[in-house]
């Protein structure tokens, strides 16, 4: 497969261009095909070391990156902050340098503070290393691999063999919930407004969807709108993404109660009637069942793409590691 990939680090989707999205989507489709074979492993990254540096808890992202690296035949290093030298006062940069000294080629980094993956990438460049840094979620900033796997899930549903950005043209997509605290929403705002003719609608209570999010739509190919009532955002929507209410990040009382939130913004069967009859639902997980989405709906295969998102995650992360590691799809 011919690719021209020049990005050493993937920290944010803010400056991703259409051709990069399409390269990721096509490469992920090829790896999706690899993952459907009986032998799901390719020698692409044989001899390379992928270190998963997760300074914050994670289930699906960490496991998904680990599996992706293993399917590409890379050697993987996993790091758990609780049992590491961080507890002895080692700094994060020194931890990263330790992994560099072991011959790490790619670092996948999650941290509760925004900016840590960028800081490590800058340090790796300053040291003259060729290590690639992939942001697996930093504070409230971004979660690019999630944004890309959501895009892949949507575009593959529209054309399984040739997922590409232009398929979003004329599609209405809604993101509902705690936008303010969500790095997933920020990455998705960039990816889902990258296509000409795409319509992205954000909905949530004003305390969780401040007006300043409208600025992210300036100069984008697609259109971005904000709504403080969910009904407007859902009208004729083709895809609806709900987000977890991030209770751990809410320092002030931004909501009256979870019950009231569900009443006003929860995705329910009744509210789905406002959408396109073929509407599909996405959620990056983890889900607060019965809060942002009614429990039975998230398990309903007619509407829910939640398990496809998790499956897509492995193929998309294989694509990202492959592109950054400069290997070949076999
Ligand atoms: C999200 C995260 O950690 O950013 N989950 C994920 O990676 N799939 C969303 C969340 O925490 O709610």
TrEMBL record:
Organism: Oscillatoria acuminata PCC 6304
Gene Ontology molecular function: amino acid binding; aspartate carbamoyltransferase activity
Name of the featured protein: Aspartate carbamoyltransferase
Gene: pyrB
Family indicated by similarity: Belongs to the aspartate/ornithine carbamoyltransferase superfamily. ATCase family.
Pfam family, one: OTCace
Segments forming domain Aspartate/ornithine carbamoyltransferase carbamoyl-P binding: 8-154
A GO biological process held by the record: 'de novo' pyrimidine nucleobase biosynthetic process
Highest taxon of source: Bacteria
Keyword Nucleus part of the UniProt annotation: no
């Amino acid at each position: 497969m011919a690719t021209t990939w020049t990005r050493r680090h993937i920290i944010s989707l803010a400056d991703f261009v259409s051709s990069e999205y399409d390269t990721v989507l096509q490469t992920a489709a090829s790896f999706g095909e690899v993952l459907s074979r009986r032998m799901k492993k390719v020698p692409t990254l044989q001899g390379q070391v992928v270190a998963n540096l997760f300074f914050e808890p994670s289930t699906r992202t960490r496991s998904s990156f680990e599996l992706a690296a293993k399917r590409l035949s890379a050697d993987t290093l996993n790091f758990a902050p609780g049992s590491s030298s961080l507890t002895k006062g080692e700094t994060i940069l020194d931890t990263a340098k330790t992994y560099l000294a072991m011959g790490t080629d790619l670092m996948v980094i999650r941290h509760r503070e925004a900016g840590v993956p960028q800081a490590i990438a800058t340090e790796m460049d300053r040291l003259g290393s060729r290590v690639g840094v992939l942001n697996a979620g930093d504070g409230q900033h971004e979660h690019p691999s999630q944004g890309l796997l959501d895009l892949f899930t949507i575009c593959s549903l529209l054309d399984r063999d040739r997922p590409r950005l232009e398929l979003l043209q004329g599609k209405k997509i809604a993101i509902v919930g705690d936008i303010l605290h969500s790095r997933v929403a920020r990455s998705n705002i960039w990816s889902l407004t990258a296509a000409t003719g795409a319509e992205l609608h954000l909905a949530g209570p004003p305390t969780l969807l401040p007006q300043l999010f409208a600025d992210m739509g300036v100069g984008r190919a697609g259109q971005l709108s904000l709504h403080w009532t969910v009904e407007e955002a859902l009208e004729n929507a083709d895809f609806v993404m709900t987000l977890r209410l991030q209770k751990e990040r809410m320092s002030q009382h931004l909501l009256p109660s979870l019950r009231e939130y569900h009443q006003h913004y929860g995705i329910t069967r009744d509210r789905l009637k406002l959408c396109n009859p073929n509407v599909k639902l996405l959620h990056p997980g983890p889900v607060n069942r019965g809060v942002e989405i009614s429990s039975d709906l998230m398990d309903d295969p007619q509407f829910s793409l939640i398990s496809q998102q998790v499956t897509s995650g492995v193929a998309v992360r294989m694509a990202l590691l492959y592109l950054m590691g400069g290997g070949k799809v076999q």
